[in-house]
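Worked example (supplementary).
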Amino acid sequence: MTTETSNTTVEVTLNVNGVAHTREVEPRRLLSDFLRHDLRLTGTHVGCEHGVCGTCTVLVDGDPMRSCLMFAVSAQDARITTVEGLGTQDDMGPVQQAFVECHGLQCGFCTPGFVTTITAFIEENPDPTSEEAREAISGNLCRCTGYQNICKAVLRAAEIKREGANGGDGA
Amino acid sequence: MSTRQFGQPVQRKEDPRLVTGNGRYLDDLGQDAYEVAFVRSPHAHARITDIDVDEAVEIDGVVAVFTHEDLDGPAADRLPLLIPHPSIEAGRTGYPLAKDEINHVGEAIVMVVARDRYLAEDAAQRIVVTYELLPPVVGIAKSRDGELLVHDDAPGNVAAHLLQEVGNVEPAMAAAPHTLTLDLEIERSACMPMEGKGVLAHWDSDEQRMRIHSSTQTTTGVRAAVAAKLALPLAQVECIAPDVGGGFGVKIMHPWPEEVLIPWASRRLNHDVKWTEDRREHFTSSAHERGQLQTVTVGFDDDGRLLALDVKFWHDNGAYLPYGVIVPIITATQLLGPYKPQNYRVEFWSMYTNTVLVTPYRGAGRPQGCYAMERTMDAIAAELGLDRTEVRSRNFIQPEEMPYDQGLLFQDGRPLKYDSGDFPASLAKLKALVGWDDFPAYKKEAEAQGRKVGLGIGCYVEGTGVGPYEGGHVHVETSGRVNVATGLTTQGQGHQTILAQIVADELGVSIDDVHVTTGDTRRMPYAVGTFASRGAVMSGNAVALAARAVRAKALRIAADALEVSEDDLQIEDGTISVKGAPHASIALSTVAVMSNPLRYAFDESAKAATQFAGTYDPDKPPIADDDEPGLEGKDFYSPTQATFANGMHAAIVETDPVTAEIKILRYCVVHDCGTVVNPMIVEGQVHGGVAQGVGGALYERMAYDESGQLLNASFMDFLIPYASEVPHIETDHLETPSPLNPLGIKGAGEAGTIPVTATIASAISDAEGFAIRSMPISPDELWDLRRQRALAATSSSTPEEPA
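After joint prediction of all chains, the assembly is encoded as:
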């Protein structure tokens, strides 16, 4: 006899980076796995699978959330933004651009979690101090950089964003 | 005029891809592969008496369940002992899947292959393994007792024993006016890259070829090991490292059991198979490092000059010894740092315990060696009432003594001979940076406010860029695109950028035209790997040499075409021109066309190289006897010995008088890695190294209980520093170029980590007024030390010496 470990799937529709995706998933499917393996948006990484490292952070209705601690089904009605939704190689968002300028990454594995976290932070605090910048990233682990250049990138990202806002294109 | 790239803080070529989610790490690949979960031992020491997989195989979506019995050929044998050494008395390695005995919690026993990881985990949970428990050996002290054995055939739990002596320690020690003995302890930590290990195997049954992607620091090593374990010709195996989410040493070990098992299963099942390590697996089945007990006896004169140094240490190598004794050899040799001890004897025992195995972690034995030496220097200063930098100064090797041979054999089997460095200059820079001479006044002021502050120092020398070799391949396409390949792998060090900087300069092309591939055995099958801060030294010089070969060929072809002497030509921005007559020029891309005589034209540029397109000397073959078609070159850099980078750190800490909380107020680094290719990247390496060092000094440890359970195998309990724990790092650089290689480079990768434990211990000792002899140290341990000393002070009237 075949043992069924999970005999139910449910249909979910998730709005990710402005696009609605409908899939059949098991209720236990994590949002991180759904994004990475069902939608193949592999920019969101998984570093600890228990919500400590922040690598898998995505924006859920604009707020940073750990996608390894959420089920895909619980994100049904939310607006989800992943690192892929924050810019492209030819048109990087302010945080992405700041990371490049400030050498805010080395291996790059934790970076998407920082980029999403900082995007939400500077939305809330467009002109942070150094101390505020450090505190803002103190929930994410990075094993490569020692954080100093990430702190720098937070300040630079805020600056780029302010410049963009003052630039007149209204973006 | 092209801008010289070498030495510039060039932004990284890899970054736009990585910051936008376009990296390709191991688990991003093979989306349709079968996935694997393992049943791993919950016991530290046991015999397997039965494995029942019946319930697992019935789960829908489970493809296969394998135990050791299923493995065939060399895959069923023990894993290799990678680096043999004469000191190894009992070299034991494990099996890819445990055969009958378990030697640490986390050892793999059953491999489950399923349609996805969820199902594989479901199945793994239903597998019942029955064990006969054996008493575990946990901790160096218990291992050293030798009462209980990890391996029945490794008496006294000794894996290896090595003694090296320079000079004659015994009489020098006996004659020394002062002697001190220090018992020191340092605990385990681990690399903990944010991405764990991972393997994807693709068996192509049509072509009978195996393609492995592994999150490894050595693809050539994995390739050769898998070919041997699967009994495949090397020519039928290839290995590629995709983007790798950090390594720090743990991924230089190979083959990991999974690197054998995943390709083996892929061939067996004729399907892509993937395994992505989860965090708990990384804690209990990868590797740790650092754990040592040390006894240092030192003899010195009234000025604090070393007369004799006698070191014994016991190194915890865990359950198996696949990476040999590289880590304790490095501790034994690099312990000497910038000093000349006159007479030095070092003896170590590498000990088995029923814990996760030990392989290099950033610094690889050096942090322990530096800790032993620098604790000793502080102890001498305290004993004689001298300034700690003064004692160090008096024992420094002087710049005019370079090259300086310490008389020992290093980890590469070659002499421990320092090539360069100016230690007095480094110390002067450090003292200026941290304000060493102003500190007593600051300390006094702080004390008046009821605060406890301390200043610490740590000096080190680091053998970097060990051989045997790395290679470079440079190829100029007819479009002008320059492809560069080197075989060592990348885990965030920015190799795509620094190697492109070097080649752009050597070749006279724009860095935008240079594209670097690392760690792909299809592009460069000869390579060693990324470890020992060797990437820039080895591959930097290799690609420079290869680019020089290409440049020479380009100039030869251009000189012929322009009918001038090669000496009169220059290359700038991809154009070869006659010096002083820039209108007489030819593009490098055109030279690439000319370098490859063609029969068939596939585009406009190729047309120019076809057989009816030009006029050629009919008496000469299209390709000369000693030439090859194409504008490409390959070369290898193989040094006679390692280069020796060095540095010095200073920290100011504050310890809370009530809670014993430890806070780093300032952290200063002076670093000499020879010629710097990209200062921005070197700075980043130093920052990251210091952060790992801070973790190892104050937060991280592997908490094993006496039964061999790792109690803190999660990021919730194993405390990697967040930004809130890492201080702002102030840096200054000294460049003493290495005379050993064409570019003058010394390695920078591990430097930041090496002296941090020593520096923090020094600073806390200074703040507290008593010597710290066990690291890492937590607030509760410091609180307890204070309490013990207070108790001792009330029960005895003899004051203890601060050191």
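Two points are worth noting when inspecting this output. Helices of chain A lie at 31-38, 94-102, 111-124, 130-136, 148-166. The radius of gyration of chain A is 17 Å.
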